Amino acid sequence: MGRIVGQLPTGIRGIFSILRIGIFFTLCLWMMSFSPGLSRAQAQEKTPEDAQQTPSHIIAAVPRTWPPQYDVNKDGNPIGFAIDVMEEVAKRAGLKITYLIKDNFADAVQALKDGEADLIPNSGIVPERLKEFAFTAPVETFVVSLFVRDDTNDIGGVADLPGRKLAVVETNIGLFMFGKRKDIDVQVFRDVRTAIFQLIAGRVDALVYPQPVIRILTQSIGIEDRIKAVGPPLREIRRGIRVMKDNTQLLEILNKAVEGFVGTPAYQRIYSKWYGKPIPYWTERRIVGAMGAMLVVVLIIMAGWRYQTVVRLSQAQRKSEERLRGAVESLQEGFVLFDADDRIVAVNDVYRRINPKAQGLMEQGLRFEDLIRANVKDGRIVEAQGREEAFIKERLEQHRNPGPPILRRHSDGSWHILKETRTPEGGIALTFTDVSDLKRAEQETARSKEVAEVANRSKSEFLANMSHELRTPLNSIIGFSTILKTEEFGPLGHEKYEEYAKDINASGTHLLELISDILDISKIEAGETTVAEETVDPCDLVDASVKMVAERAAARHVVLSRVYPPNCPGLIADPRHIKQIMINLLSNAIKFTPEEGEIVVETALDDEEAFVISVKDTGVGIDKKDIPKTLEPFGQVGDVLTRKEEGTGLGLPLSKSLVELHGGTLDIESEVGKGTTVTVRFPPERTTARSAVKKA
Question: What topology is assigned to 531-690 in CATH?
Answer without folding.
Answer: Heat Shock Protein 90 (3.30.565)
